[in-house]
Amino acid sequence: MLVTGGAGFIGANFVIHTVERHPETEVIVLDALTYAGNRRNLDAVAGQVTFIQGDICDSEIVDRCVRDCDTVVHFAAESHVDNSLHDPSPFIRSNIIGTFTILEAVRRYERRLHHISTDEVFGDLPLDSADQFTEETPYDPSSPYSASKASSDMLVRAWVRSYGVLATLSNCANNYGPYQHVEKFIPRQVTNVLTGARPKLYGAGVNVREWTHVDDHNEAVHRILADGRIGQTYLVGSGDERSNKEIVELILELMGCPVDGYDRVDDRPGHDLRYSNDSTKLRTELGWRPRYGDFRAGLAATIEWYRDNEWWWKPRKSETEAKYQVLGR
Ligand code: NAD
Ligand code: DAU
User: Fold this and answer.
1) Any idea what the CATH number is for the domain that residue 21 is in?
2) Torsion 213-215-217-220 (CA) sign
3) Given this model, what pLDDT does residue 128 score?
């Protein structure tokens, strides 16, 4: 199995999960080690996977890797909305050209592909409604990041229909868990508290996200690889929706700080209001259920992970905050 982006947050957790629960699978990781990738994310499986540092836009490397595997699980992407608003170009390159390059190799060697996407391709939902995204919701992306992911999904769908490529897609809601880069919401606030800084809430903090533990996302990917129908899209989400303000307050409470000890900063331009995935298809067709039903417990464990692994996040904290300073957030 070739795992692109296997040194990033979800990809590394996927590789560890695969080595532990599917030891018969030989894993090759292809990752460019951008600012978001970290070889040490794979320490737990050192010697058990083959690591290749390379760019998914490089058709020679991609060709060699795809030729040597049966299945490709494609996580590699530029993943942070705020970065895409500042400079969209790497998103266009990695997310669109990179996916195109993978698709062409998969077509050439007739390999199975699973493409990892996001609920952000659907745009957003009103705050005061029970509406949910489904597999039939029309695409309506808001940011350069989500537009580039929407483009990559469209390419995958076209390659399935026109070339018979054996691909499935999944669109997951927000993930949390270990090894998530300190630029992202939960790790940023946790490491702010750990470094004596105050959490930063965009705008009024009313925006809602659906939080899914990374292991639950990765279990869904394994179920789709095993029994998913070719050409189909599966939405993944825990059903646990929370406002950003609620999350910041919960982090502060769990870390023993006053719950109003955060700063309000400028809002993100075009900030999506609410995401919510209807994952009925995944649950009924493939029997998926989130194992991390208790978000409070999952968040507490994640906070502990950051407390115990300062060596992992500390070297990236100041450069990340310097980027935010430029953005005024
Ligand atoms: P991440 O930023 O933590 O990791 C991305 C990885 O891809 C890094 O290791 C990076 O080095 C690698 N990469 C980037 N560009 C590359 C290139 N051109 N060639 C090779 N490698 C490259 O991202 P993540 O949060 O783990 O997200 C992984 C995937 O899941 C992405 O496709 C993202 O769109 C999707 N997704 C993320 C979430 C979330 O909440 N984080 C939710 C749904 C879907
Ligand atoms: O929904 C899936 C998506 O979730 C993935 O496709 C993306 O790759 C992933 O980054 C994530 O996107 P978001 O933009 O929702 O996540 P982020 O962690 O950047 O922010 C979550 C929410 O918190 C969002 O409403 C913005 C807000 N926020 C974020 C940061 C970094 C803050 O209020 N303060 C912050 O400091």
Assistant:
1) 3.40.50.720
2) negative
3) 87
